[in-house]
Each structure stands twice: as structure tokens, then as C-alpha cells.
Amino acid sequence: MTQTQTQESPALPRAGRNVGKPIDRVDGKAKTTGAARFSAEYPYPGLAHAALVHATVGRGRIAGIDVTAAAAVPGVLTVITHLNAPPMKPPPPVSLLNLESLASATTVNYLNTDEVHWHGQPVGVVVAATLDAAVEAAALVRVSYEELPARVDFAAAEGRAKPQKGNALQPGESRKGDAEAALAAAPVSVDLRYTTPPHNHNALEPHATTAAWDGDRLTVHEGAQNIAWVRGHLAHKFGVPAQNVRVISPYVGGAFGGKTMIWPGTILAVLAARVTGRPVRLALTREGVYRTVGGRTPSIQRVALGANEDGRLTSLIHTSITRVGAVGGGPEQVTSQSRHLYDAENIFVQQNLVKLDLLSNTVMRAPGESIGTYALETAVDELASKLGMDPIELRMRNEPERNPLDGKRFAHRMLREAYARGAERFGWADRTPEPGSMRDGRWLIGMGVASAYHPSWQFAANVTVRLSADGTVVVRCGFHEMGMGGATAHAQITADALGVPFEAVRVEYGDSDLPTGPGAGGSGQTASVAASLLTACDKLKRSVLALARRSSGSPLRGVRPSGVEARDGGLYQAGAAGRGEAYAAILARAGRTSVEAQVGSETRMGALAGQVRFMSKLMLDRRRWVKAACGAQFCEVRVDPDTGEVRVSRWVGVFDVGTVINAKTAASQLRGGIVMGIGMALSEATLVDPRHGRIMNPSLAEYHVPVHADIPPIDVSWLNEPDPTMPLGLIGVGEVSITGAAAAIANAVHHATGRRVRDLPITLDALM
Ligand code: MOS
């Protein structure tokens, strides 16, 4: 593993000892020894098991259901269908003032309707004393349908695409000048069409829910990316106050957006528990995840670039068509990077949508930019070929000083530095530009580059920090740990902010009884929690100092907050020789067992006010700055000239992600994104039957994610320059590295073979 040494950054707490270090994850041991308990592993006395019955038509009405055979299976407790399910409230209407409403994966009121909206929609749930009985019985439920015509074929729907309506944060369309006219007049141009397939979520841990009612109180164990949304949504559906619902989610076996929305399995597990009066576990099979959890949209994209002979872009056009479900899903920001990456004189970007009778699409690692950068960054490479110019040189010639569309300032932008360092680490200078000119024995060698780009996000986060008289600190925040190392990062930040050892800090997370945290999404969770955490630590230090200042016995008596620093487990006057005292001594003298500081409010009005405040600040911020992470991806492939087999043999990624909190977990995040990008480029594709919308490959045997043998050593590094507009200078690391990855591979494949593949994945047949 290689990574750049971390440097001391000006935005860090002065006595920082932990931020930046490659500290092992605090949850690592529990996860690797099997001690960690996931949501399908909670034992309850009398636990029953549930299994879903899926619709086998793309659209229609249920004409009849015969549960006789299913109900006769020994151990079956009940078969719940729309004929006998108690009423639930329909999903809440979407509103920005009710953030939980954004969590509705679909508009369907499952088992409260006879309508079928997608092939695979749950039309029944079997509850049994054993898992085997539930699964066996679910297969015996006979459902007949009045089938209705279903629109499921994305390729055939192209002509029906309509421009997406934008909003303040995410425009559907942007333009500068007349890009079409400039394209027509350009001395050199490309005008290209790219297509990408749907992708499905394949976290290691399939979705699972364990639900238990106690009167009108509900406990749910659920691997989730937004426990506050799960709580709010279930409270709404089942008509109980939100405080009656507790969502417990300390361990999540991977999640890349698929555990953000509320999917039917969660709701039906809770329903099953309510109907049977027993705790119920519903663990989806891998196929169940494909049938009931949305994935990434397919896309049709046009990228057209016009340039002068010197490579200066005169025109940049990027338009996309993606799909949403008739019952839900949202636009993915396929063109977002094209608004910011190149200083073209004329720009036109536009996103278009088609609605199909399929399960809603949903967020999946860098929704939008992951596939958008594939098209844009391949097209830039194609233009470089046409110009006879080095693709890095072409990019640097068009690197903007300010946001190309409107002249807004970049909060932070170090793409030049990323390319310079990447080229050196990768050995780009050794590349001979002619396609097919590099060989190693029989293997054709190709080298490609592409830019990575992902906007940075921040959300509201409530936290409390409590310092005890024994010098230990407890941070409480209902954030999410899907394996990225949040708990570790926040212990590092807290330790430095309070000047205590890392080991003295315990971070509590993954429980809706904790102060409401941000969702784990948009690569924004760490920055969001960090912002509130720093404020809370500051408040805490002031409270402790106030105790000391009042005391005649304290060396801090009368000292102002600005003259005090936190270090060595206490507060000291600034300067190495500054006098002060340990927290323990201050608290003991004041007769206090602990001091606590809080950020955010848990009351309904307080939370709403906080949300409004936060959103206004975010909008203001966005008016002033363009905020994002970026990076340079370098890839080497080897292509077998006879079989078309593509192996990725080397990778260098250099990222501009601001301050890195933990060098080990950040490196893993960045590597993980590249691995997912390799899957996107070479193997991943969901196959949808164009007749009725059935997903035909709902298993890891037929939907190919990369395995270890597909992945070379991945050299990731970062520039570690803080973003002055972000808390601690940190930008998220979760998503940026999947962007640009597929383009780097496609460009390397072209360099190796002279073949341009404009349709993902790049399988052997495309190169034969
Ligand atoms: Mo994500 S798609 O921000 O989990």
C-alpha cells in the first residue's frame, strides 16, 4: 500500500495527534472475529421467519390468490396478502420539509393494493416458525393476474424521454452560449453516443430486518444508511409516534446507496411482526435484493466536443437519458461533472428521463457521475486522439480557473497537481501514444487516464460529547458505519479537539435513540458529523474552562478561552510552558462527575428549525462556491489479442479530497471505489427481459462483480490540502474514486487495441 505522507494542515486543532494517522478501525476486531452482530443475527424468543412472494408480471392486477398449499406447510403461522393485510398508511407525499418523505423507495402501499407495478413486487409474505417452512410455503402461493401492458424496454423508450425538471441544488439543464453552433463551426470535433446498462446493489450483507413489537412500541434491527428515515417512515406507515420506534444498526455489511431508501422488505417484516404478534426476521435472498431493492439507471448519453487545432474547447455538449420507475426513483446527476470539468466557450448539458414499469432506480455510489464521467472522459480521450494530442495535455489546456458556466469560484481544485503526481507515479512518460504500439509478449498493453469528479455534501448532524471525571469521552451521534470507518474517524477528531488520547474516546452510533445523525450518503457523513463535533467540543472546553476560571485554586483562573489550548488531557495556557490542569482535576474540584455539550435539537420544532437553518446555509454556500472532490485515474490494461480478454494490470489514482482524517480507511474507501469502477467497466450489467421487465441475472453467479483475481495492486494517494470551506478541510472520500474509473479503462483498452467501446461493460465480444 502506498500513500502520500500526511502533512500538518492549518485547519486542524493545534495539538492534533490523531487526525491523518492510519489508525485501525475500532470496529475491525468485532467484524473480523464474528463478534459483530448484524441485523439478521439478533436472537429473540419466539422469533418467526418471513419470506416474500414476488409478482410474476410486469404490470397488472391480482385476480386471485390461493394460499391453501402454503398454509398447509407445517410451521406456517400465516400468509399475508392484500386480502387479509391490515391497513397501513400510504407512503408520505414527498416534501422538503419532511425529510423522511424522501425515504420512500416507491409510492406503493404494499399488500394494501391489488395492483402490480413491477415484476418482482411483493404480493405476499409468509410467516413461519422456521426459515425453511417460510421459503417452502412462499413458493406454494398461487397468484393469478390480470396482466396489463408494461413499458419496460429502456432502449425502446428513448423517443419518449422528457427533459428533467431541475431544482436549486441540482439543475436539469445548463447552458452557456450556443454550443450546437460552436460545434458545427469547430475545426476539430467529435459527436458520440455512449450507453451504459442498469446496475444492481450487491453489498456483502443482503438486506435484512428483525422487527419486534411490544404493544405500540417497535424495535427494528436493520442495516441502514439512514436510521432516522427508517424510524420516521415506519412510524408513519404504522401510525405510531416516531419516538415509539427504535432502529438499531451498529453494523452494516456494506452499503453503497442501496440501504438509503425504505424498501418493501423492511415494511413487510414489521407488518408480519404486527400481524403475528411475534418478533419476525426477514432476510432477503440475493435474488430478493434484486427484486425489491432498486439499482442504478441505465443511460444513453451524447457527448459532443468541438475544439480549435490547439485543443482549446469551443463547445461541450453532454445530454443524457436515464430512467425512473412509474412508482418512484429520481434523476441521477449524469451530466453534473460536465458543468465543472472543462473551460469550454460554449456549454450545453441536459438530462432527460423516461418512466418505465420497473422498480424505482435508486442511489448507487456516485449516482450520475459514475456513468457520466465514463461518457465525458472517454469522449475527451477520443478528441485527444483526433487532435493527435496527449490526453493529459488536452485536459490541462482546458482546466478552468473558475466554474466554466458562471464564473463561480471553486472552493478547492487541484486537478493539475493530481495529474502531475499521477503521471509521475504511473510512469505516463513511458507510454508510446500510438494504439497497439505497446506489447509484453503476446499481451497488448494499453494505458489510459480519466478525471474523477464528485460534489461535496454536508448535512445537519446532532451530537453530544460528554467528558467524565476519569478523563474519558463519549461521543453520541446516530450516524452509520457501513465499514468506512466513521466511528474511528470521529474518535480521532474528538481526541485531537479535546487533547485526549484516542483510546479515551468512545463513539456511539447506529441507534435511533442517539441524537439524530446525518444519513450516510453523498460522501457527506464524515464532514457533517465533524462540523457538529468540532462545535460540541468547543462548547465543552468552554464549559470546563468556565469551571476552572471560577476557582481560586486553578492556574486557569481568569484566563480567556482564546488563550487556552486542549492538550495532554486537559486545558493549558497557550505555549509549550503554559500552565494549566487536567480535565480530571478541574471536574474534581468543581464536584462534577461529567460535563456535556450538545449540538442540535431533538424536538420536532427544534429539528425543523435546525433543518431550515442548515438548508439555507447550504444554499448560500452553493451560491458562492462550487464544491467538489476531484482526481486523476491512471490505468494499465493487458488485452489478449486472440480472446479479447481484458485484465487491469496497474492502477494509480491521485485524489484531491481535502484533509484526510484516517490514512488507512480513506485509502480503503478510494480503492473500493476503483474496484467498483472496474466492475462497471468490465463486467457488471443487470439484464432486464424487454418483454415483461423481469431481471434475468439476479445472482452473483450471473451478475459479475470483480473478485480479488480481477484486481491489481491499487496505488492511491491524495494531495491532503484542506478545503477551506469544509469542516476540518475534509471533503468526502466515498464516491469520487468510482468516477472516471470506467473511462480510464475504456481509454486504456483503446490504447491497447485501437478499438473504442462506447457501450458498457467492455466484454470480450466487443473486442473480437
Ligand atoms: Mo451513496 S450513493 O451516497 O450511498
From TrEMBL:
Region: Disordered, residue numbers: 1-27
Any Pfam family: Ald_Xan_dh_C
Domain of life: Bacteria
Positions of the Aldehyde oxidase/xanthine dehydrogenase a/b hammerhead domain: 33-149
Listed GO MF terms: iron ion binding; oxidoreductase activity
Keywords in alphabetical order: Molybdenum, Oxidoreductase
Transmembrane segments: none
Protein name: Carbon-monoxide dehydrogenase large subunit
